[in-house]
Amino acid sequence: MELLILLYAIPIFYFLFMIWKHVDARRDQECYILDYQCHKPTDDRMLDTQFCGELIKRTKNLGLLEYKFLLRNIVRSGVGEQTYAPRNIFEGREENPTLHDVISEMEDFFHDSIAKLFARTSICPSDIDVLVVNVSMLSTVPSLAARIINHYKMRDDIKVYNITGMGCSATLISHDIVRNIFKSNKNLYALVVSSESLSPNWYSGTDHSMILTNCLFRSGGCAILLTNKRVLKNKAMFKLKCLVRTHHAVDEAYGCCMQKEDEQGRLGFHLGKNLPKVATRAFVDNLRMIAPKILPMSELLRFIFVSLIRKLMSQTSSKSGGWGTRTKPVINFRTGVNHFCLHTGGKAIIDGVGLSLELELSDYDLEPSRMSLHRFGNTSSSGLWYVLGYMEAKKRLKKGDRVFMIGFGSGFHCNSCLWEVVRDLGDANVWKDCIDDYPPESLANPFMEKYGWINQEDASTFTSL
């Protein structure tokens, strides 16, 4: 009898052991953010209305039509007067940048934010196991990642990834790389560095689709320290719950955001008129994929039930000759999300995504993205972290809250993820010196007040600014 019990007990205990082993292994695959540090350039690189006007005046290729286009789009952009640009623009060399200008812009960010991050966390550069750098519009030899390793004297066996060409959503692609590495390796530290190079990418031509980038993009960057060490989970700020990447590469989506030359051979970054439509399609597809991962079962069942009822009502109405109901059922994302961190691609992007039927966000929800765009501009892939920093500085992030990040990028990409707040947060980070001034009473751009007279000018009599 005892032997029979033993024969039954062995497979049962083995089965339980395998379950425990699987669960225990998953605990070592979690992805935590220990800290992050956004970059704030020095005040001598700040773009105010007066300097922007001088910059436009010295661009000799522009005429009255371009001036009116710039005025209209600068006023509508949502970008304020305290954003930052590379030094070569202030030195009047935006059309002729040197390699030194390009490297200097990147190193200013590397030496500032990464150093502050190591100091804040008391982590040594030699402790870093994985380094992922994403700067879309710059590829140097040695790579930017190699420059960081050399400067901070990191280990020889560090795993290195240097990503280019992935656009404004590249920071979430970088985190996806780290997440996958964490699944097969225990007790690691990873450093993600996100930025964009503006020094060599100023457009001096007259193509309206390329001039837009001068209005929106500004200098910035962010360094993020991650780990999968379970002993540090209580010291972490965020825990990654899920991440979904959507890539539409059909011709229309592929060509709406593209670096190319204009008819005069000037290199620039093209933003097509079909960009909002392409972004909406990618956004909807991404939501369809991530919704089952982040929403409670009760909300998903409610949505399915309402959809079936609406479909039956519509069929019944059509048979009886009625119009039926035309209102589509909507998923309530607030049942699984507390905060929405939207890409600061521009005022139109923020409003379009936030006020879409899929999300229907309030002004309170959109405030962090709008304020980040106003204070720092579109800093490309690092923009999401300025938005997150605003939420933290305003002490919105409490333990257990869930933050939904949404990023868009050329290609065309829509990437999103969900972070869970591990502990109450309240550090001001890059917003330390100005958070009390936000939100301001008005986001009105002073360009219209100073240069609004351009709209009254006639091409036949206009001479110059």
Account of the protein in words:
There is one protein chain. By secondary structure, the protein is an alpha+beta fold. Helices cover 42% and strands 17% of the residues. Strands 5-4-6-7-1-8-13-12-11 form a 9-stranded mixed beta sheet, sandwiched between helices. Strands 2-3 form a two-stranded antiparallel sheet. A two-stranded antiparallel ribbon has the order 9-10. Strand 4 (130-135), helix 6 (144-152) and strand 5 (159-163) form a beta-alpha-beta unit. The N and C termini lie far apart (101 Å). The model has no long low-confidence stretch (mean pLDDT 90).
State the main characteristics.
465 residues, alpha+beta, nine-stranded mixed sheet, two-stranded antiparallel ribbon, 15 helices
Low-confidence stretches: none
- Looking at how many chains there are and whether they match, the oligomeric state comes to single chain
Distance between the termini: 101 Å
Strand content: 15-25%
N-to-C order of helices and strands = HEEHHEHHEHEHEHEEHEEHHEHHHEEH
Whole-number average pLDDT? 90
Proportion of helical residues: 40-55%
